[in-house]
Amino acid sequence: MAVAIQLAAAPWLPLHFVPAGNLLGVLPILIVGGGAVLVLLADLMVPRRGNLVLPVATAVVLLGALGTAAGQWAVHAANPIVFNGAYADDRFALFADFVILITALAVVALSPGYLRRRGMEEGEYYILLLASVTGMLVLTGALNLIVVFLGIELLSIPLYVLAGFARDEPLPQEAAMKYLLLGGFASGFLVYGMALIYGETGHTGLVAIHHVLTATAVSQQFDPMLLAGIALLAVGLSFKVSAAPFHWWTPDVYQGSPALVTTFMSVATKVAAFAVFLRLFSATLAPYRAEWQVPIAVVAIISMVFGNVVALAQTSVKRLLAYSGIAQAGYVMIGLAVGRPDGTEASLYYLAAYAFMNTGAFAVITILSRRGEDCDRYSQLSGLGRRQPALAGLMAIFMLSLAGFPLTVGFFGKFFLFSAAIHDGQLPLAIWGILTSAVSLFYYLRVILIMFSGVPEAATEPEVQVAGVTLGGAALAAPDSAVAVGVPAGLVVVLAGAGTLVLGIFPALIYTLLQGITVVHG
Amino acid sequence: MTWPILGITLFLPLLGSAVLALIPASRTMAVRTVGIAFAAATFALSLVMLVSFYATPKVGSAVLGGSVHGRSLAHVASPITFQFQEQLSWLGSTRALGQFRQALNQGNNGVNQAFAPPINFSFHIGVDGLAVWMVALTGLLFLLAAVALSRREDRPRSFLILMGLAETGVIGVLVSLDLVLFYFFWEAALIPLYFQLLGWGGPRRGAAALKFIIYTVAGSLFMLLAILGLYFITGAETGVYTFDVPTQIAMATQVIGQHPTSLTIFGHVFTFLTPEQWLFLAFALAFAIKVPLVPFHTWLPDAYGSGTTPFLIFFAGIVSKLGAFGLIRYNLALFPQASHFFQPVMLALGVTSILYGGLMALGQRDIRQIVAYSSISHLGFVVLGIFALNVDGLGGAIVQMVNHGIIVAGLFLCVGMLEVRFGTRDLGRMGGLARPMPIMAGMFLVLVLAGMGMPLMNSFVGEFLILLGVFQVSPAWAVAASLGVVIACWYMLRLYQGLTQGAVRIPGTGGEERRAGGSVSGGGVRDLRALEIALLAPLVAVCIGVGIYPSPIISTIRFNASQYMRLDGRGPQALMPTLGLGVASSSAPQPPGGGSAP
C-alpha cells in the first residue's frame, strides 16, 4: 500500500506512542466526568429546594479540573499525545479548556439564583451541565475522528435537554425540539464527512490523515471524494459554531432556551466546536489549505454580514445576542480561514475575549430575568441606567467590547484577527470585517442608548427590580430573595467586566500565553 | 527632565476622574472643586511643557536595523523632533522580534510565509512642536469647560468624571508615538464623548450621539486596516516591523509602497493607486470625518446643536482639531508622496468646506448653528493650509488650529450665556442686547472680529499665512478661499448685529416677547457675572494678544512646520518671503532657543 510506505518513510512520525492508559493526560476529563456521577448520586440524597450543595459541588469539580489543567499547562509535557494518538493535552487544548471551564464556573455561580427565580430548581441541571463540559473537554484535545464525534455528541445531548429545561413554558419546548432535530442533522453531516475521509485515507487518526494528505497534496491528485468529505466536515462544524448559512437553529434556540443555558451554549459550545474546527483545518487538513480556504472565508463573510445586518432588525434582546453570536462566529472564522499559526492565535484570543464579554452580557440578562419569563424585551432594559447604574455600566462595557471598542478586550480580539488576515493577504476578509463592525455599532449602541436614555419601566412593573448590584460588591442584594443569590451573580458580572477592561488594556496577559501554543502535529 | 512630565500630564485627568468617583455625588461643591483643580493642574503642566519644549530642541532618533533596496536604514532619522519621550513595552518582546529579524537576515525566504512577524507595540509617547501647542490648548479648554459647568447642571459628578476620561483620551491622541496606541486613544476618547452627548443636552441628543459615534468609528475602522497594512508593507520592504511613529516617519522618507496595485478581472488588468495612496486615503477618511470636511460633515450640526455649553467648549475647541492634527502628523508625515498626489483633491475639499460652511452659516437662524457652520468653514481653511504643502501654509494651519480652538470656545460660551438667560437660540427673537449687556457685547465683538479674520486679531495671522501658502501652489484656490473670508464677515456681522444692535428685543419666558422701545434698556436682563467675565477674558486676551504680537508663536510653529515639509525630500518650499510679520524670511527657519536645525 502506497499509504503504508509513505507512513513508514516518514522519520519524524511518533511511532512509539505513549503507552495506553496514560490517564494523567485526560485527568480534567476524568474529574469532570466523575464529578458528574458524584453530583448525580448527591442529588438523590439532598433535598431539592433552596439547597446549595449541588452548585457548590459542581463548582468544586470544575475548579478541580481547572487546577489540573493549569498543572498540565505548567508541566508542558514534551509529548502530550495519549491513548495511542487519540487525544492530546497540548497547550492548544488546555487553553480552550481554561475558557470552557471558566465559563462553566460563571454559569454555575449564576445558577442557584436564576433557577430559583425561574422556578426550575432541579438537580439534573448540574449533572447535565457537567456532562456537557465533559464532552467539550473531550473535543478540545481530540486527535481522532471517532473521538471528535464522541465529544460532539457528549456535549450536545445534555444541551438538548437543558434547552428545554423550563418544562412548563412553550418556547423552551420548541427550542429543545429544534435544537435536537437540527443538531442531529448536523451530526449526520459530520459523520458522513468523517466516513468519506476515512474511506479515502484509511485512517481516523488525525496525525495519520495529515501525513496521507501531505503526500497526496504534493502529487496534486485531489480526490473529489476527499474534498466532499472535507466540505461535509466543515458544514457539520459550521452548524455547531452557528456560522451562517448554517445558523438557522441559533436565534430560535437562543431565544427559547432559559437565558443561563443560552449563556453556556453560546460561549462554551462555540469555544469547544471552534477548538476542534481549528485543529482539524489549520493542522490536519493544512495540506489542502488552498482548497478549503476560500469556502471557509466565504462562510466567515456570510456570517459577519448576515449576523450583523439581521441583528439590526431584532426587538428581542436574546435574539439580538443570538445574531450577534452568529456575527462573532464569523469574526473567529477569519482566523480559521487564515489557517496559519497567527490566524489560530488570533481566533483563540478572540474566543477568550468572547467568553468574557458574552458571558457578561448574558449574565446581566439572567440577573434581570424573573419568574415565568426571561428579560428579553428592550423595554425591560429601558431606564436601567438610572435604576441600576452599575449593572447598566457593566452591560455598556460588554456591548462596547462586542462592538470592538478600545479599552475593552474585543478591540484587541479584532485587532489580531484583522492583522492575521492582512498579513496573509486576505484583504477582503479584513474589509468585510471592518464594514460589518461598523454596522454592528448600531445595535450594540442602541442597547446602551435604551439603558441610559429610556424611562425606567419600574413605574409600571415594580417587580422588575431584581438585583441591586454595585461595583463595590457590598449591596448585592435581591429584594425578594436571599443575599446569597445576589453575591455570586454580581461577582460574575463584575469579574467579567473587570476582565473585559483589564484584558482590553493589557492584551499581553493572554497573548503571551498564546505565543507558546502549538497545535500538536501541526 | 528626569520626571515623566508628559506621562503625568496624560494621566492626571484620569486620576482626577478616579478621585471624583470616590467623592459622594451629593457633595457638589467638593466635586466641582476637585474637577477644576485637576483640570487646572493639567493645564499648568501643559504650559510648563510648552515652555521647556522650546528651551531644549533635540534631534530625532534613527531607525534601528533594516534596509530598503539594499541600503541600510541605520542612519535614516525622523526629521521631526519629539521631546519628553517615554516608552514602555506593551505587547510583544524585543527578543521575539530580534529572532524574527535574524531569521529574515539569514536569507531564509520561507520565513515570511511560515511565521507572522511578532506583533509588537509599545506605550510610546512624546510631543513635537505641533502636539505641544495642541496639548496646551486642550488643557486650557478643559479647564474652561470645568469652570463653565453650570450649577444647575444635572449630575455634575458624572459629567466631570467623563470629562476627565475625555481629556486623557484627547491628550493621548496628541502624544501617542505608536500607531496602535494612537488608534487606541483615538477610539477610546469617543466613549466618554458619546456618553456626555447622550446624557446631557437637548431633546434629540440620543440620535445626535449615535450619529456622531457611528460616523467617526466607521471612518476610523478603515484607518485600523491602514495601520496594519502600513505595518506589513513597510515591514516587508525594510525588515523593520514596527508600529513606532518616529521610525515609520523615518522610513517614509525613503520611497515605500510605490508599486501600483492591480486587479485582474476577466483577463483585463486594472491598475489602481499605489499602496501608499490607499493608506493615505484610509487615514484621510478617518480624519476628514473628524474635522469635518464637507461631504462628511453631517454629524456636526446635530452634535453641536444638542450638546451642553461646557461640552461644546472642548468638543468644538479641541476634538475637531484632532482630525486636522491627524492629517498633519499621519497623512503628511507618513505618506509624503501620496500627499502630493492627492493635493488637488484635498485643496478642493478644503475650499468646498470653506464656502459651503460659510453659506450654510448665512442661512441659519439658530445662533448655535451659525457658530457650528462657521466652524466647518474655518476648519476648511486649516485643511487648505495643510495641503498647501509648504511651510507658510502648514504653519498658518497650525496657528489657525490653536486660534480656532480659542475663538469657537469663546463663541459657544457667549451663545450659551444667552441661551441660559433667554431660553432660546433664535436669532430673530433677540436683538439690541448691547444696551442691557454692554460687557457681553464688547467681548462678543472681539470674538466675532477674530472669527472674521480681521487684522490685529489672531485669526488674521493664521488665515493670511494659509492664503499665502496656497497662493504659491495655485492662485485660483487662494482666490476661491478668499471668498470664504468675505462670507465669514457677512455671517459673523449678521450674528453680531442681529444680537446686539437695533431695537432691544428680549424673549420672555412664557413665549411672549417683550418688545422694549429703542430708548428703554432691557429691564431685568443681567449682564455677565464675574465668573462669566473671567471665563471669556483669557480667550479675548489671547485673540487680541496673538493678533498684535504673533511672532513668538509663529516662529516656533514655522520651525515645526518646516520639519514636516522636509519629509518628502523636496525640502522646504517657502518660495515667497513672509511679509511684515516679524518672522525671519529665510526659507528654513531656525529653531527658537538657540539650537540648530537637525
What does it look like?
The complex is a heterodimer of chains A (522) and B (598). Chain A is globular. The two termini of chain A are 25 Å apart. Chain A has helices spanning 2-9, 27-45, 53-75, 91-118, 124-140, 145-163, 170-201, 206-218, 224-240, 249-256, 259-284, 289-312, 317-338, 341-368, 378-381, 384-387, 389-403, 409-423, 427-453, 483-505, 508-515; strands spanning 81-82, 87-88. A two-stranded antiparallel sheet of chain A has the order 1-2. In chain A, helix 12 (289-312) runs parallel beside helix 19. Chain A is built from 21 helices and two strands. Chain A has one domain (18-454, 486-514). The longest helix of chain A has 32 residues, at 170-201. With 522 residues, chain A is mostly helical. By secondary structure, chain B is mainly α. Chain B has a domain at 342-567. Chain B has 23 helices and eight strands. Chain B has helices at 5-22, 28-55, 94-105, 111-114, 129-148, 156-175, 179-188, 190-199, 205-238, 245-252, 275-290, 299-306, 309-319, 321-334, 336-341, 343-362, 367-386, 391-422, 438-452, 458-473, 475-500, 530-548, 551-565; strands spanning 67-68, 71-72, 83-91, 121-127, 262-265, 268-271, 505-507, 513-515. A two-stranded antiparallel ribbon of chain B has the order 1-2. Chain B has a two-stranded antiparallel ribbon with strand order 3-4. The interface between A and B is large, with 33 and 38 residues.
